């Protein structure tokens, strides 16, 4: 408590000091506190337009006042407190890097700002707008603000919009874009929209072969002399537009240079090798010509199309072996407009060996280090194939009150091969900027949980990935194979199983064989920062042993468990859903939400999902007020017979998972962001199991939801985001003791410290 008092004293001392920054001003100086826009003739604008107009105009005012947090000019206070004549040292550094000199009212150019605002209004259709500015300050005050009085006048709207009516190709093409015009009858005149309309028309014409056309070849004329404050808009093609801009171009020849360097000065067309519809100039045979068959989307005699051309450029990079691509068009118009295309490709270094040491935190709340050694061959068989082998080793320690030194050591190798095309029976054709890929992955991992057990894990997968556009991605694995074998189980672990008869402990070391297909779909537009609302969704369906189990008549409950090579195989259907919604409240404030619904249905040869396929909850990226994997399943909580004498708790897992998260993110200052959050959820088993009372999913599942809340800080270091979260439980899925509300004792004097969970992680939780 004493420490808390000292913190409060320091806080209020800084607060009072920050409030008195004006005392450092010279006589006659006034601190500028910002500008205010007042609209005096609101009858000329719609009520819904007034707010956006004021916001738009206010954003144009210069200079900006001194930065504040909660009304405190902290940067100005630092500036005054660290002023020094020295050009180096701590004070000079703080003054120049964290301080901010005062913005004085005398530095505000009222006339210039008024002119800028008036011009902005005229560009927005308020042709008769008038703006005047003045400085306002209370008598004896050392602060002042600027007030800009605005008379918008009436807004002008489009009465009619006319496109070209000529009969040549260009007139017809421009007129053909009218159906999707940004200019609409009845809309208010807006210069920004007019500029975007010219760009839109140009983009459309580039899809129709008008290679040399540009937005500057269009002129927008308007007549504002019409009655009732209306405007007639005319879209014209400039008379000075050159003939080349009026022609529709098609493709003649396509040339590709896979081994281009700046020293190359000759086109070497005599050494061109024809393949399909393009020519490859590659005297050193660094790649096989077919590599570009899935890359070049334009063909001879095709009308030039900018989208197809840009997608081709992107696909050259997507291939993998090439780090840079540039292109050149040559006008070869003999009798009709024709273009030759040249693609010059700079190859990346083919083979590489990289090593890295990373600090990490796993989903089970383990903190540790990992060493990776990765070999890559970016053009393994001269067809753009990426062959890579990753060797890794790691050691992790789980921090928590119940771990008692059961650390984890891992070693593994992961070879993989990626083809920049579809290999196999599936035919996936796309014309977008992304190349479909075939991926073969394999791997082996040794997992050693000290003092408990060692597991050998083998896995392999073969499948496809493709993106129909920037926001969507599909992944289809024709087969995923996983085999886990318990190589060594300690006597301590075996004694714990015998004493507790807890099936969870046995389930961890059971040999596990899963095989089957999977499919996932991802939609993500959250990377578009201009969006006010954005969504991320990922859904996945996984199958294992379904057809084989049906053919063999597998039924574990009836005593008909089937095996492959002496190991029972798993039979299940698993569906995962991850939906995230982001709402931008302001430029510095965002609301982030997530909802997870994951269900695994074991049947036939299985009564429970294999441990490697089960769901877990809790930890730094889940319920942050609880230790990782410490909740559930259901209302089950290990009895004293499990914990006493065993020295550890099993990682709780389930077949069903429900989770919801809400987080308010606010930028505070510089690289620091703050967050308030609440999380809710739990896991359950599909069926009841002996030794796990309350673990099965039932109609009372809502009463078994765990809830937490908390706050945190994020440090945006550009290359990564360092995250700290402090969470505490609000509701636990058990309720049995007096003075306890759903498992959380709020009456104890030590609650605030003993129940707090600290999470240190990299990146946002979702």
From TrEMBL:
It holds the Pfam family Omp85. This is BamA/TamA family outer membrane protein. Keywords: Cell outer membrane, Membrane, Signal, Transmembrane. Residues 1-22 form the signal peptide. InterPro entries: Bac_surfAg_D15, D15-like. It is found in: Membrane. It comes from the Bacteria. Residues 358-735 form the Bacterial surface antigen (D15) domain. PANTHER family: SORTING AND ASSEMBLY MACHINERY SAMM50 PROTEIN FAMILY MEMBER, TRANSLOCATION AND ASSEMBLY MODULE SUBUNIT TAMA.
